[in-house]
Design the sequence.
């Protein structure tokens, strides 16, 4: 099953077929489920928060 690509141009979303204008926004649906995306975002947020905390600790030790 091929992933479809969609185009948004002037507020109208249609399936992208052929060449598209430069000002068109192209996007495709994710193969991940909503639950997978949420879990991935949470993991990234935890990792980023930990990184920020470590950097702040380093900065205030000096």
Sequence:
């Amino acid at each position: 099953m091929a992933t479809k690509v969609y185009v948004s141009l002037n507020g109208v979303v249609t399936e992208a077929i052929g060449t598209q204008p430069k000002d068109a926004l192209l996007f495709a649906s994710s193969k991940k489920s909503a639950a997978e995306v949420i879990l991935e975002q949470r993991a990234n947020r935890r990792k980023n928060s930990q990184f920020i905390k470590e950097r702040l600790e380093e900065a205030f030790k000096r």
